[in-house]
Design brief:
Layout: H1 2-24, E1 65-70, E2 86-93, E3 96-103, H2 120-126, E4 132-135, H3 140-148, E5 155-157, E6 165-166, E7 178-179, H4 182-192, E8 227-231, E9 237-243, E10 248-255, E11 260-263, E12 265-266, E13 271-272, E14 274-275, E15 277-283, E16 285-287, E17 302-304, E18 310-316, E19 319-326, E20 335-337, E21 351-357, E22 365-367
Helix pairs in contact: 2-3
């Protein structure tokens, strides 16, 4: 009986202590807190060259290729440019311009060409991407950049590495017949033991997120710009007309041989080139000093000053914004900012980047669909030289 009373007293004391503890906590027994649900991580995989969502066939871990393409009148129409994610254009010599296309997947390329010789300004745009630089011949200045910056491992010159074939083009001289494709490139890469392993961990530009609810587009803050005219030289002019349905700027060029502008067509598919983004970057472009002794005369190679950047314009989604651009040294990446030097938000898609002589700034024009571009007269007697130098 005593043992029973002792046990009863102990139990009563225990319940009292629990009750006191409950009173101190407001009379409620503290329940274990529920754990917060773990947030679902954002799945964001942008194509580094376009900002668009990567497709299943995107070549992850593979180096891009940068291919020089001729743009002299007689070389048109070109092939393969509609496959380029980025297309550069710049004056090279004698008033003529040249293209460089950036292609993501060399294993999935239709014919590209006609391929022409390398120039240092294009190499300097390709080097920060560590793209395989593909050309047939080059200026001595270009080779100096290749050697100085130890870029030989990523330089594919058709003069000493066979990555081209010759296409029959009646009425066109030999320098307008060099083409390449996935098979030719794969063979040259294998025989030259080029390292094509490269992971692009960050997008090249500050793209609008493709999952922003508007398919990676934003509304620009500037004026309406449905048409635009770039003057590279007296007879080398590039035009863009905005197509609202596709949200692309469709490209045309002046052809001095016929005295009018013509659509820039990819000969592979008959499609006019179109770009979601158009950049016009004004730079001080001057002639490299060149000593005598060349039997063809002074090649008039053009130097594009990129040391301190400059001003430009960005066209997308039917509007235009004034911008700044920066480059710096050969291995520094090309950057675009707004006029306050904050990173420019760039819409997803393919890009045309034209570097234009600052002397032609006053002849650059854009207009809305209801306005006309008051294009300055073209003097065909001032045509740039049709002679091209290596």
């Amino acid at each position: 009986m005593k043992k029973f009373l002792s046990l009863l007293m102990a139990m009563t004391l225990c319940f009292s202590l629990v009750a006191c503890g409950d009173k101190e906590n407001g009379g409620n027994v503290e329940q274990p807190s529920k754990s917060e649900p773990t947030p679902t991580p954002r799945l964001y995989f942008p194509n580094p060259f376009t900002g668009e969502e990567k497709t299943s066939d995107y070549p992850d871990g593979q180096r891009a290729v940068a291919i020089m393409v001729n743009n002299i009148n007689v070389a048109r129409p070109q092939s393969g440019l509609s496959q380029a994610s980025i297309l550069f254009e710049s004056k090279v010599e004698g008033g003529i311009t040249r293209f460089m296309g950036i292609f993501e997947d060399y294993k999935n390329l239709a014919d590209v060409g006609p391929i022409r010789s390398g120039r240092d300004q294009f190499l300097r745009w390709a080097m920060p991407m560590q793209a395989l630089y593909c050309h047939v011949g080059r200026s001595g200045i270009t080779q100096t950049y290749i050697d100085t910056n130890e870029y030989n491992d990523y330089d594919l010159d058709g003069f000493n590495r066979n990555f081209i074939y010759r296409r029959n083009r009646p009425g066109k001289s030999r320098e307008h017949t060099a083409y390449t494709n996935s098979e030719e490139l794969a063979s040259a890469i294998k025989s030259g033991n080029y390292d094509m392993n490269k992971t692009y961990s960050d997008p090249l530009f500050n793209f609008v997120p493709y999952d922003n609810g508007n398919n990676g587009f934003r509304e620009l803050n500037g004026e309406a710009a449905d048409k635009m005219s770039i003057v590279h030289s007296e007879t080398y002019r590039t035009y863009f007309d905005y197509d609202k349905a596709s949200k692309k700027y469709m490209m045309s060029q002046y052809n001095s041989k016929v005295g009018k502008r013509e659509q820039t067509i990819d000969e592979n598919n008959g499609v006019q080139l179109g770009f979601e983004n158009v950049f016009v970057a004004f730079a001080d472009i001057s002639t490299y000093p060149y000593p005598g002794g060349n039997p063809k005369g002074d090649p008039n190679y053009q130097y594009v000053d990129m040391d301190f950047g400059g001003i430009g314009y960005y066209l997308s989604n039917g509007k235009v914004e004034k911008i700044r651009w920066f480059k710096g040294g050969p291995m520094d990446r090309l950057r675009f900012t707004d006029m306050d030097e904050k990173p420019l938000e760039i819409n997803c898609g393919r890009s045309y980047i034209g570097f234009v002589d600052l002397d032609e700034y006053e002849r650059f024009e854009y207009a809305s669909s209801s306005e006309e571009i008051t294009e300055k007269p073209i003097d065909n007697t001032q045509e740039g030289s049709e002679v091209e130098f290596e």
